[in-house]
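Journal club side-thread
Mid-discussion, someone asked how the predicted structure for our own chain would compare to the paper's figures. Pasting it here so we can look after the session.
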Amino acid sequence: MSKQRETRERVLELIDELGVGDAIPSERQLGIDLSVSRLTVRAALDELVREGYLVRRRGAGTFVAEPKVAKGIDISSFSDDMRARGLTPASRTIDLRTIPAGARLGRILHVSPSEPVVAVKRLRLADGEPMAIELLHVRSSLVPGLKGADLEENSFYDLLESRWGVAIVGGTQTVEPTVTNDEESEALGVPLHSPALLFERVTRATTGDVVEYTSSTYRGDRYRLVTEIGVGGRSLQPAADIGLDQLSNWS
């Protein structure tokens, strides 16, 4: 094991003994305690900061970060995910507009390019902290009268079923690594080009019709993916790649 890897593991053990927000020893002190160079300590800490275990505060030091939220790859609402983990979900609607589907979105939603589509940009929060920025696209005819405030007070899936009688029964979801752009970095409160996870989702109703296309950029420092594997010859596989390009309908 390399010195940097060994140092990283030793610091992880230290983190396990501390609480969220606790300061870790200085690079100099860690070098003395672990009998390694300060450069090795810095490299190990840099890696742990990138992975979300630590957070640096200018002029104050390095501290234990909030634990990452474990997210599965099943199709469930953000609100349900957060509540299941003891966090309070919230949404802030940044923009809501009706646009023509266009060629790419029309293919995804199985509608003509001229079909009106409601396009919503939302900031998703947990316990008041930004977690993801989401671009939701749904046929206008499915959600007549949908307002931005509706999505700040209710889960989209709950609204679909209670107000419009549309139940989500399945779909396809992909996950890939990405980095945040200028807008995402500002909204999520992270540095430009921070590691992130891009979730793209297409869901279907009981009729088999496509209901929504959503792309969500989750903070990489607060999320980790968790899935199950089967036994006895049965395995649970992540959703197959649906090959969707991220849409750019926003000015």
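Post-session note: Residues 46 and 74 are 32 Å apart (CA to CA).
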